[in-house]
């Protein structure tokens, strides 16, 4: 085992898109686990759009020149608590570093599901999958045969949403993404029926072409113009599931497009947002739903796996710029 640890710090607040200059890799001696704690060597890291929100000077945001936080899976390499055994793999939130000191209260033991790759616990079985599952089953309350539109459809949440929606008996699936190549990937690989590049014209026009008969549910990862377009395309009793607003994270001061508020009343629409952290009680239900499908091959995790902790900042930036598909995960070499 190495005797040094690497940790990523944020060194400055970005305006617009962050760059590698807003981060630093800081080397330190390997921490000793305190009594009652354990030292974990991280194996997989999740980098997420909410980290971009935390880079701003907001309550609960990242402090400058301090270790960043994020979801990770790590192996216990030294333990001073009977509650964590050396060799066991745990989920915790002290990511963005090669090694972390954790207490038993801060970790979740990973269940062992034969044939399921570890990375899946950060993708379809992790917060990303749980977000899609909660959005579909609890917020949209999806019914069989209903037609969906999903924005940021090629990302982690967007791909999990399509895969789960199909397994739940959804009707037509339409997705939007940032390039023609990614739109092709959505229909060829992920299982969308139609997909468009949102750069190709006004969202209302593109959505009307892709879903000429309208939609029942909008799973919205983006906000902005696509949200306005979806309000127009929704059928009576349609639902808008507000998951995220990635169109605003890197463009402070962007004008928020308007939609006809009367549509909400006249079509009896429901718009509801949620935070996945308020639904962690559904984690076991997600395992019960998804694991058999993973094992049977009916469910494939969509992941971009980047090898090497030294690439974690680049992986984060690539995800923000839309250069990846599926859930982006960094893996230790
Ligand atoms: N409510 C919750 O608890 C919760 C939990 C997890 C995630 N989320 C939200 O869900 C959304 C998706 O998260 P994720 O982890 O799955 O990330 P992701 O979709 O894998 O990555 C973000 C993607 O957003 C797209 N994007 C970036 N800028 C955009 C813009 N201006 N307009 C439209 N699309 C843009 C890019 O893909 P393109 O190539 O398609 O542009 C990018 O790859 C985010 O808004 C996130 O904050 C919410």
UniProtKB/TrEMBL annotation:
GO molecular function: oxidoreductase activity, acting on the CH-CH group of donors, NAD or NADP as acceptor
Keyword Oxidoreductase: yes
Residue ranges of domain Enoyl reductase (ER) in the record: 20-330
UniProt-listed CDD domains: PGDH
Record's keyword terms, sorted: Oxidoreductase
Name this polypeptide is given: NADP-dependent oxidoreductase
SMART domains: PKS_ER
InterPro entries named among the record's database cross-references: ADH-like_C (IPR013149), ADH_N_2 (IPR041694), ER (IPR020843), GroES-like_sf (IPR011032), MDR_fam (IPR045010), NAD(P)-bd_dom_sf (IPR036291)
Gene3D superfamilies named in the record: Medium-chain alcohol dehydrogenases, catalytic domain, NAD(P)-binding Rossmann-like Domain
């Amino acid at each position: 085992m190495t005797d040094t640890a690497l940790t990523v710090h944020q060194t400055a607040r970005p305006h617009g898109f962050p760059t590698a200059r807003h981060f630093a890799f800081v080397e330190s001696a390997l921490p000793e686990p305190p009594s009652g704690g354990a030292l974990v060597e991280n194996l997989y890291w999740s980098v997420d759009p909410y980290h971009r929100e935390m880079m701003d000077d907001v309550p609960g945001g990242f402090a400058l020149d301090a270790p960043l936080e994020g979801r990770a899976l790590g192996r216990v390499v030294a333990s001073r608590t009977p509650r964590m055994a050396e060799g066991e793999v745990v989920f915790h939130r002290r990511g963005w570093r090669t090694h972390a000191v954790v207490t038993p209260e801060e970790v979740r033991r990973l269940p062992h599901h034969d044939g399921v790759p570890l990375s899946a616990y950060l993708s379809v079985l992790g917060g990303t999958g749980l977000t899609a599952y909660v959005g579909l089953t609890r917020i949209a309350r999806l019914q069989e045969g209903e037609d969906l539109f999903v924005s940021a459809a090629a990302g982690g949440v967007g791909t999990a949403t399509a895969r789960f929606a199909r397994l739940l008996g959804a009707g037509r699936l339409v997705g939007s993404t940032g390039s023609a190549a990614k739109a092709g990937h959505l229909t060829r690989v992920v299982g969308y029926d139609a997909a468009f590049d949102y750069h190709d014209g006004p969202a209302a026009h593109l959505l009307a072409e892709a879903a000429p008969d309208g939609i029942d549910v909008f799973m919205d990862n983006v906000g902005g113009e696509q949200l306005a377009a979806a309000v127009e395309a929704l059928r009576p009793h349609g639902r808008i599931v507000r998951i995220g607003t990635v169109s605003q994270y890197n463009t402070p001061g962007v004008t928020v497009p308007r939609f006809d508020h009367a549509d909400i009343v006249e079509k009896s629409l429901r718009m509801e947002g949620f935070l996945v952290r308020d639904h962690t009680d559904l984690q076991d239900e997600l395992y019960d739903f998804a694991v058999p499908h993973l094992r049977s091959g009916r469910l494939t995790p969509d992941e971009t796996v980047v090898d090497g902790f030294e690439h974690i900042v680049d992986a984060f930036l690539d995800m923000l710029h839309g250069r990846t598909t599926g859930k982006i995960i960094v893996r230790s070499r």
